[in-house]
Amino acid sequence: MLVVPLVLSAMIAGIGAITETRALGRYGLRTLAFYVGTGTVAILTGLLVVNLLQPGVIDGKPAGALLGLDAESQDVMSRVEGKGAHNMLDVVLRLVPDNLFAAAATGDMLGLVLFGFLFGYFVSQLPKDLHRTQREFWQGLYEIMIRIANLVMRLAPLGVFGLVASIIAKTGWSAFRPLAWFCVAVLGALAIHVLIALPLVLRLVARVSPLKHFRVMAPAMLTAFSTSSSAASLPVTLDRLEKQGGVPQRITGFVLPLGANVNTDGTALYECAAAMFIAQAYGLPLDLPTQFIVVLAALLTSVGVAGIPSASLVAIALILGSIGLPLEGVGLILAVDRILDMVRTAVNVFGDSCATVVVARLDGEDGVLGEAAMRKS
Q: Which of 21, 70, 105, 120 has the greatest number of beta carbons closer than 10 A?
């Protein structure tokens, strides 16, 4: 009920707003290149860690029985084989469905995601009056879907209680073993990204001290962790980077609002890891082309995920549908989603701040995270 209108409206409204800033072409190109690059690195990190740790496999057997999965593995396998691409060309062809409505009805959402990008871009190319009408319509639809999603999430604790109670009654406390390993895999991958990958970018590309950057961003990351919302932490991030980081307002005012809607490294990593964990729990080995679909879907859908707590569950459902896995698999991770949501949101915000510093340094700003800026803090 939520996936199609929420993801499409978020993408169309968001991309339409982004392309209004065409005058800031050099900022936009650098920012989007950073977001795509670091997002891809984050997703591949999550994919690698989950493939290495195999959290969905316990004692050499799929964890589905421990987690109370009802779907028959053979039935799921047939659906995955029907959805999976046999070569990379098939993956590319699936980006352009023959019929948008048929693709939405059958859960083949990959093409709809690309359609949302294209539609949002060309909305910005319309004459002023038509552009405003389209933007207002899609923004209004987005706000409506956010409110419906919030209503659903209010009921989520009851659903989590029923799900966990049912599983524990069937299997005992052993059900938490695969979930614990899943948490370890996700937190480990997020740690690699935020402690190794992004600091390397700061050091090698921006040529600034990652330690100083962590000091400046600590309050904003704490706000993101406590609220699980990139949007809620945006004012703190702006204040820290401008006053304590020495980044000019003309750059923070462009990069950070864009990042709050587009740059979601932690979320993209989590979506990929969750989809792979669910596939492992069903005992389904995904071939490389199908894993490529997961990576591509995670990268695309992370852009359309709303800046609200647990909104990535919608995107995970979309990814599962793209590769033919049952949507009930989302229920496996509900019990641990909240704490992981807090951590990945902090990673998202830190990635936004890294992008801002990189763009500022590439634009010739010498005072970013310098000694003068640090003395102000």
A: 120
